[in-house]
């Protein structure tokens, strides 16, 4: 029996490209949706159908969804700075357009949504599970619109029977990462990196290959339909292990620390000044970055383990070395981050 066609949106990005590769290896026919301006290096030599479309151009989406029985929606506007409406145009209105195209163009067996652990309230977490509701007010444009997108999908599931599954990964890293780890590398190389406080709070680290394991399970397990799952590595690491591992790989001095109270007192001024200047890029300190560097981000994956059989195989130490090796091969360990 032939396997169903999988459409992967955001296929030029880290998550989408890894999903596409794994699906091809598993014998699925795969269509990769990318924006017309996207670099597609990560999809080279893959036996895929490449489709150029844009979530902000509804008419371009119909060819993308045609005959697709599974949609893995990894496309999103990322970042921690800028008006919520910019994020909403892609993460919410773009989602509506894709749902509308899918509703009229195919009979879906599964919709797998790549969401984020960032939808939870911005506080310390110690084993938080999926019974805790997301924060619809949002901490920033990205997390707010990811929470809104989840609400839309849950409503489509209740009212129209959309066979959706929502996966909430944490801080994603792995080969193909051109955002988070490169920025940490940049700060360490330039001697600007500082740990905040004692650095002992846990990260919600999620290796991209572990997330892809969860995506494939969500596609194949019937019991996943209508469910939401937290996804992270099996072992969480604290900021000290994360920062020090990268610094040692780079053969750079281990970063020092600054008091948390001092940084929390300063972040508001950094953001105000950036807004007054109309800055298009985030200042050195934002509330989102403070969350990333200070809060305990321990989320339970028991539900995914029990219902999906999710068993993350790659530990942080292995995954971060693969990430840094890839960045080295790409020439991205010189303290320069691509825009």
Protein architecture, described:
- 41% of the residues lie in helices and 14% in strands.
- The protein has 339 residues and is α/β, with parallel strands linked by helices.
- It has a domain at 6-173 and 206-233 and 298-313: NAD(P)-binding Rossmann-like Domain (Rossmann fold, 3-Layer(aba) Sandwich).
- The strands form four sheets. It has a seven-stranded parallel sheet with strand order 3-2-1-4-5-7-11, sandwiched between helices.
- The chain is globular, with a radius of gyration of 20 Å.
- The mean pLDDT is 91.
Note the topology.
Blueprint: E1 6-9, H1 14-25, E2 30-34, E3 49-52, H2 62-65, E4 70-73, H3 84-91, H4 93-105, E5 110-114, E6 125-128, H5 141-160, E7 164-169, E8 171-173, H6 180-189, E9 195-196, E10 205-207, H7 208-220, E11 228-231, H8 239-250, E12 257-258, H9 260-276, H10 287-294, E13 297-299, H11 302-308, H12 316-329
Parallel strand pairs: 1-2, 1-4, 2-3, 4-5, 5-7, 6-13, 7-11, 8-10, 9-12
Count of alpha and pi helical runs: 12
CATH superfamily of the domain at 6-173 and 206-233 and 298-313: NAD(P)-binding Rossmann-like Domain
Shape: globular
Radius of gyration: 20 Å
- Named CATH architecture of the domain at 6-173 and 206-233 and 298-313: 3-Layer(aba) Sandwich
What's the CATH class of the domain at 6-173 and 206-233 and 298-313, please?
A: Alpha Beta
N- to C-terminal separation?
A: 44 Å
Summarize the structure in short.
By secondary structure, the protein is of the alpha/beta class. The protein has 12 helices and 13 strands.
Structural key phrases:
339 residues, two-stranded parallel sheet, alpha/beta, single chain, Rossmann fold, 12 helices
């Amino acid at each position: 029996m032939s396997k169903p066609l999988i459409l992967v949106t955001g296929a030029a990005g880290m998550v989408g490209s890894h999903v596409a590769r794994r699906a091809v290896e598993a014998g699925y026919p795969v269509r990769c949706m990318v924006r017309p301006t996207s670099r597609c290096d990560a999809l080279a030599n893959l036996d895929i159908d490449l489709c150029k479309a844009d979530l902000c151009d509804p008419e371009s989406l119909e060819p993308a969804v045609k005959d697709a029985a599974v949609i893995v929606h990894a496309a999103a506007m990322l970042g921690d700075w800028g008006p919520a409406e910019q994020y909403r145009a892609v993460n919410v209105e773009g989602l509506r357009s894709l749902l509308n195209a899918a509703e009229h163009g195919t009979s879906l067996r599964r919709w797998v949504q790549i969401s984020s652990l960032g939808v939870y309230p911005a506080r310390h977490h110690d084993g938080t599970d999926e019974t805790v509701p997301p924060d619809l007010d949002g901490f920033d444009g990205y997390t707010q619109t990811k929470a809104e997108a989840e609400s839309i999908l849950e409503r489509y599931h209740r009212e129209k029977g959309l066979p959706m599954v929502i996966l909430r990964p944490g801080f994603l890293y792995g080969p193909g990462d051109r955002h988070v780890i490169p920025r940490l590398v940049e700060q360490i190389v330039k001697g600007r990196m500082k740990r905040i406080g004692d650095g002992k709070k846990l990260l919600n680290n999620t290796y991209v290959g572990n997330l892809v394991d969860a995506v494939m399970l969500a596609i194949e397990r019937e019991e996943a339909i209508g469910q939401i799952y937290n996804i992270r590595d099996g072992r969480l690491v604290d900021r000290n292990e994360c920062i020090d591992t990268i610094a040692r790989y780079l053969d750079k001095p281990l970063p020092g620390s600054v008091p948390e109270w001092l940084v929390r007192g300063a972040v508001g001024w950094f953001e105000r000044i950036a807004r007054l200047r109309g800055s298009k890029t985030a200042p050195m300190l934002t509330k989102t970055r403070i969350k990333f560097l200070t809060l305990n981000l321990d989320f339970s994956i028991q539900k995914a383990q029990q219902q999906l059989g999710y068993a993350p195989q790659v530990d942080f130490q292995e995954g971060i070395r693969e990430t840094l090796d890839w960045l080295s091969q790409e020439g991205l360990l010189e303290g320069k981050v691509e825009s």
